[in-house]
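Translate structure to sequence.
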């Protein structure tokens, strides 16, 4: 598992603080959306603070119990202001994995995909999983056990793609996407 987040604060305290910040972002986004002139897009939250909060959410997801993981996943599916940002964060984890060859980044990337639960687009999930897998193999990190570990803590409930994230992760190596886009880059 990833290093335990936050010294001195409990997982629950860290989650509550994160939830308050994310709820505030969501409220600001809604106000911006309502006030935006027709044809203009609402202000999208971003920046280092959001990236840090998404990183923390991924760490809490890894360290939390099933109830906390479910709450994190449900919250991110409702925070339309940041929908897709958690999956996008998986790309930075893939980059860090490629730079450091530290399995911690693979775990965090898989946690980000698990939190997204194919809520963005299953094709995007496949692409980022492929990048994480390729980076791991190139770093001599066996990705299979990490995928299995992530699957164990992922939702077992069928999502919009009619499959659970648990099954999505467990079947990744047998998917058509893997055969066509990932396997050829491994040899």
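Result:
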């Amino acid at each position: 598992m990833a290093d335990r987040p936050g010294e001195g604060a409990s997982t629950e305290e860290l989650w509550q603080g994160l939830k308050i910040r994310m709820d505030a972002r969501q409220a600001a986004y809604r106000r911006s959306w309502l006030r935006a002139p027709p044809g203009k897009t609402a202000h999208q939250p971003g920046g280092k603070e959001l990236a840090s909060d998404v990183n923390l959410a991924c760490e809490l997801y890894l360290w939390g119990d099933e109830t906390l993981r479910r709450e994190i996943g449900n919250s991110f599916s409702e925070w339309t202001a940041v929908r897709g940002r958690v999956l996008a964060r998986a790309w930075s984890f893939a980059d860090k994995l490629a730079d450091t060859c530290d399995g911690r980044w693979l775990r965090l990337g898989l946690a980000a995909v698990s939190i997204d639960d194919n809520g963005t687009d299953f094709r995007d999930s496949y692409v980022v999983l492929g990048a994480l897998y390729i980076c791991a193999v190139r770093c001599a990190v066996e990705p299979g056990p990490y995928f299995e570990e992530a699957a164990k803590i992922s939702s077992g409930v069928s999502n919009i793609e009619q499959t659970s994230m648990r099954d999505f992760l467990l079947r990744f190596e047998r998917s058509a996407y893997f055969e066509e886009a990932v396997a050829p880059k491994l040899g």
